[in-house]
Amino acid sequence: MIHLDKKKVVVGMSGGVDSSVAAYVLKKQGYDVIGVTMKVWPDIEETDEREDSCCGLSAVDDARRVANLLGIPFYVMNFKEIFEKKVINYFVEEYISGRTPNPCIACNKFIKFDELLRRAHNLGAYYVATGHYAKIDYDEKNNKYMIKKSNAIAKDQTYALYHFTQNQLKHTLMPLGEFDSKEEVRKIAAELGFVNASRPDSQEICFIKDNNYGKFIANKRPEKILPGNFVDKNGKILGRHKGIPYYTIGQRKGLGIALGKPMFVVDIIPEKNQVVLGENEDVFGTTLLAEDVNLIYLDELEEGLKVQAQIRYNAKPADAKLYSEGENKVRVVFENPQRAITPGQAVVFYDGEYLIGGGTITKKVR
């Protein structure tokens, strides 16, 4: 059995400034730091060298140069097979099924804090660490680990971390949660001479070079891209669409149809290959159902639990109540209507600064 050293930590280094500064902070705190870049995209040699990409060869080079500067061991590990299975294939199948996935959450759940943690343990490291803006607290009274929002609230990334288990939290470090701003992180990187100090934040999905989801899915599964009908709420045919993976709830631009007034995607019915269009008011809803729900520190759900619920990464948490709908399923009832409740996206629950948990939206309840 491998002995796990509590002073040893594997830092997932993407080539960006955040994970680089995380490695520096942990080394400064006295940890034995090992840098690892995960080779995830199957055609990494063919990716364009977009400056904000975390998958190109330049990102690997940047991570290696930072590791050399810090004087820490550095490895590139092959995660291509599990990444394709758990992230890319999931992404494609969700869009084909009329849902809008969040591949970053899948990557965190299956790659960074699961497979990478296993490999860290194989190296004798007790911890994995990343450059996420979030904090991990330990509640001694209840013997529970908890996730807390970052000090830099504008950069907070807790929305994408609701899947954590207690065991994963026990073995995870997130040093950037204590920073008050991204500018503070960049300043440290610049002072240390990091090559990536001014590298732009990654904005797009790493494995889609041109941000064209529809084209990517069409290349992967061309037989599933089938033209169909735009319909209104009553099923009346309004025109033709080019395939449901090209559309998402709340979308107005790029519909390719003129109806004399602004129209929005309000529903997608994959079994009929229909995209339902409506007016802006039709995009709003107060109730949703979610599945695959994970509660980080609660043993069971209190009926009618008051929370602040967030339905997408850039949305603001809103007052809501939770009700059980069976094992790992909840109904979320908002105090005020929310725009574009989207199946496939995560709904995440907070109690003030603390992340309670979350799940995957399955439907908006009319």
Automatic annotation (TrEMBL):
Residues 287-361 form the tRNA-specific 2-thiouridylase MnmA-like C-terminal domain. It is found in: Cytoplasm. The record marks H132, Q345 as: Interaction with tRNA. CDD domains: MnmA_TRMU-like. Residues 215-278 form the tRNA-specific 2-thiouridylase MnmA-like central domain. ATP binds at G12, M13, S14, G15, G16, V17, D18, S19, M38, G131. It catalyses: S-sulfanyl-L-cysteinyl-[protein] + uridine(34) in tRNA + AH2 + ATP = 2-thiouridine(34) in tRNA + L-cysteinyl-[protein] + A + AMP + diphosphate + H(+). Residues 155-157, 312-313 are annotated as: Interaction with tRNA. One of its GO terms (molecular function) is tRNA-uridine 2-sulfurtransferase activity. Its main location: cytoplasm. The active site is at C107, C206. It comes from the Bacteria. Its EC number is 2.8.1.13. Belongs to the MnmA/TRMU family. Catalyzes the 2-thiolation of uridine at the wobble position (U34) of tRNA, leading to the formation of s(2)U34. This is tRNA-specific 2-thiouridylase MnmA. The gene is mnmA.
